[in-house]
Design a protein that fits this description.
alpha/beta, 20% strand, flat
């Protein structure tokens, strides 16, 4: 299972958000257990209304949704790349995650001290980004030293590596993250080997006050984040209110919806954040649906049919013959499997077919 790490400065609402995420979707997911692996790792259900619709069509009461892991990472302080605070532990934990959700404080509250003296989201983003970049600069310099000898001896892989490192170094020196470097497929593979912190995809969670959630886009702090991350990080942002979500945890689904309605919103932003993180990890969902269960299967974008089948069971991949596939929208519009077959909407796809988000599939394979 892929992991997203929640990062940010101290007192920006990271742990509140983590608690909200790992106990979220009460309205849709009351039947699913909250799963804690570690004190700071939680498995989170990906909210997706499609699975309930498929369950109704298939006349099953068993729903198995998609899930991702979130890791609550200790608050970063300036100097983390030099070991300040929990710097080394912080950076090591980020190295283990596949994507970063960077929580940015976009609320004023005299009762919640800001460790840097006042609310300034762009400065806060830069503090965290700079620490990741400084750590990467050190790693790149070491790797250049290590690779130069091999490259001089004519090692083709080392030469390709060195060329990429020499493109990376000036970018990092300009205090720009590695994920802004334009790379081809082969360079992307090498970049992954370097395990750079600033190469990881990032999403910004703008944590706003309760009263600001309905008009979050007009919040001056959120606007600052929006302008900054588009130009400096080529990244998306999602306004959320961790405090509201924390208050929803203990409410019944109907009460939670009424509470949000009173605030002028239909969601605290957490659902949008989970879905955006799922996309950030490069994931899509396909479904299987029958009398036993309706289940969401998670695959990486671009996965071909045999590998998609292998997510269910390795035997499905080994013995893959064909996939029977219908698009979710077609299946729902026609009201069921039989009608979709009659309408010619079921397709037989072979080994080269790339699964799309929302495909509903049945696999044929040799036992």
């Amino acid at each position: 299972m892929l992991k997203a790490g929640i990062v940010g400065l101290p007192n920006v609402g990271k742990s509140t958000l983590f608690n909200a995420l790992t106990r979220s979707r009460k309205a849709e997911a009351a039947n699913y257990p909250f799963c804690t692996i570690d004190p700071n790792v939680g498995v989170v259900i990906v909210p997706d209304e499609r699975i309930a619709v498929l369950a109704r069509i298939s006349k099953t009461t068993v729903l198995v949704p998609a899930a991702i892991e979130f890791v609550d990472i200790a608050g970063l302080v300036k100097g983390a790349s030099k070991g300040e605070g929990l710097g080394n532990q912080f950076l090591a934990t980020i190295r283990e995650v596949d994507a970063i959700v960077h929580v940015v404080r976009c609320f004023e509250d005299p009762d919640v001290i800001h460790t840097m003296g006042g609310v300034d989201p762009v400065r806060d983003i830069e503090v965290v980004a700079t620490e990741l970049i400084l750590s990467d600069l050190e790693a790149v310099a070491k790797r250049i030293d290590k690779t130069q000898k091999k490259a001089k001896s004519g090692d083709k892989e080392a030469q390709a590596e060195l060329a990429l490192l020499e493109r990376l170094s000036p970018l990092l020196n300009e205090n720009k993250p590695a994920n802004l470097l334009k790379v081809n497929e082969e360079e992307a593979r090498l970049l992954k080997l370097f395990q750079l912190l600033s190469a990881k995809p990032v999403l910004f969670a703008c944590n706003v006050a309760e009263a600001d959630l309905a008009t979050a886009e007009a919040n001056p702090f959120v606007r600052q984040v929006a302008d900054y991350v588009r130009t400096h990080h080529d990244a998306a942002y999602v306004p959320i209110s961790a405090r509201i979500e924390a208050e929803l945890i203990d409410l019944a689904p109907e009460e939670a919806l009424a509470f949000l309605k009173d605030l002028g919103v239909s969601d605290s932003g957490v659902s949008a954040l989970i879905r955006a993180t799922y996309g950030l990890l490069g994931l899509v969902t396909y479904f299987t649906a029958g009398e036993k269960e309706a289940r969401a299967w998670t695959i990486r974008r671009g996965t071909k049919a045999p590998q998609a089948a292998g997510v269910i069971h390795t035997d499905f991949e080994k013995g893959f013959i064909k996939a029977e596939v219908v698009g979710y929208d077609d299946l729902v519009r026609l009201g069921g499997t039989a009608a979709a077959r009659d309408a010619g909407k079921y397709r037989l796809e072979g080994k080269e077919y790339v699964f799309q988000d929302g495909d509903v599939a049945l696999f044929r394979f040799n036992h």
